[in-house]
């Protein structure tokens, strides 16, 4: 076993083994409840992880960002995207290469630009991303 085995949720680990493709994961730095887990830099993974921390409620509810060292207050519905900026995950236009922090901002660029109209969104991983590689072992079913 490699020394720096990353602690990820079983679903993520399973997906890496299944696909045989490495994934980039980020250390969770939510305050108060250090979980020591690594999370994928996607909106679905982050939002599921926030739920795991009990950060739930109506999207319109105002909450303080739970990320260590951040004191921003924002709507819960925007928290997932905001956490992605803490992870350093960015998105890039496949045609002109412009980099933006948020999907919706880049999508607006693609929509409004004639040149980039057929671009797709490329993920730019943050500097603290760690590579989660498949172990290659036979997947054991744990129930
Ligand atoms: Zn966590
Ligand atoms: Zn924050
Ligand atoms: Zn572009």
Helix/strand layout:
Elements: H1 10-19, E1 23-27, E2 38-40, H2 43-52, E3 62-64, E4 73-75, H3 79-87, E5 90-93, E6 99-100, H4 103-112, E7 121-124, E8 130-132
Antiparallel strand pairs: 1-2, 1-8, 3-4, 5-6, 5-7
Helix pairs in contact: 2-3
Bound molecules: zinc ion (3 copies).
One zinc ion is lined by residues 93, 95-96, 98, 109, 113, 116, 119.
Task: Give a verbal description of the structure.
27% of the residues lie in helices and 19% in strands. By secondary structure, the chain is of the alpha+beta class. It has a domain at 10-89 and 125-132. The strands form 3 sheets. It has a 3-stranded antiparallel beta sheet. It has a 3-stranded antiparallel beta sheet with strand order 6-5-7, with helices on one face. It has a two-stranded antiparallel ribbon with strand order 3-4. Strand 3 and strand 4 (73-75) form a beta hairpin. The longest helix has 10 residues, at 10-19. The mean pLDDT is 89. Bound molecules: zinc ion (ZN) (3 copies).
Summing up helix and strand content along with how strands pair, one would put the structural category as: alpha+beta
| Proportion of residues in extended strands | 15-25%
Bound molecules: zinc ion
- The side-by-side strand order for the widest beta sheet comes to 2-1-8
Fraction of helical residues: 25-40%
Q: Strand count, sense and closure of the main sheet? A: 3 strands, antiparallel
Instruction: State the low-pLDDT regions, or none.
Output: none
- Broad shape: globular
The N- and C-terminal alpha carbons lie at a distance of 22 Å
Following the backbone from N to C, one meets helices and strands in this order, namely: HEEHEEHEEHEE
Overall number of strands: 8
Number of helices in the DSSP assignment:
4
């Amino acid at each position: 076993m490699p020394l720096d085995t990353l602690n990820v949720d079983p679903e993520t680990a399973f997906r890496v083994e299944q696909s045989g493709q490495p994934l980039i994961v980020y250390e969770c730095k939510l305050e108060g409840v250090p979980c020591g887990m690594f999370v994928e830099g996607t909106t679905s993974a982050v939002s599921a992880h926030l739920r795991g921390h009990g950060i739930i409620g109506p999207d319109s509810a105002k909450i303080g960002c739970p990320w260590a060292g951040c004191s921003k207050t924002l709507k819960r519905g925007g928290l997932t995207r905001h956490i992605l900026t803490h992870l350093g995950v960015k998105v890039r236009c496949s045609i002109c290469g412009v980099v933006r922090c948020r999907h919706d901002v880049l999508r607006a660029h693609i929509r409004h630009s004639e040149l980039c109209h057929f671009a797709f969104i490329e993920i730019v991983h943050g500097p603290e991303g760690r590579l989660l590689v498949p172990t290659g072992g036979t997947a054991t079913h744990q129930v």
